Amino acid sequence: SLIRGELADSTFAGRLGSGIVLTGGGSLLSGLVEMGDFIFDIPVRRGVPNRVGGLTDVVRCASHATAVGLLLFGMDQEKLKPTSPE
What we know:
Elements: H1 2-9, E1 20-22, H2 32-40, E2 44-46, H3 56-59, H4 65-80
Parallel strand pairs: 1-2
């Protein structure tokens, strides 16, 4: 309900038509997604990382979403850096 209050006070409340994605270890709590549906009255789902290879059975878990997202973001930023002529 604290998050709902913050969203109501922000400009984002009207932009959540497609729903809310919960990530992180806390999103694994039993019943949290269902409670989110009830509180926010819009679709809520648990997000897991995609675009990962290797140990996907280990990394493809909501508790790793932030770390994987930061790594992917860093890789994308590295690709955008201009290369210096040598």
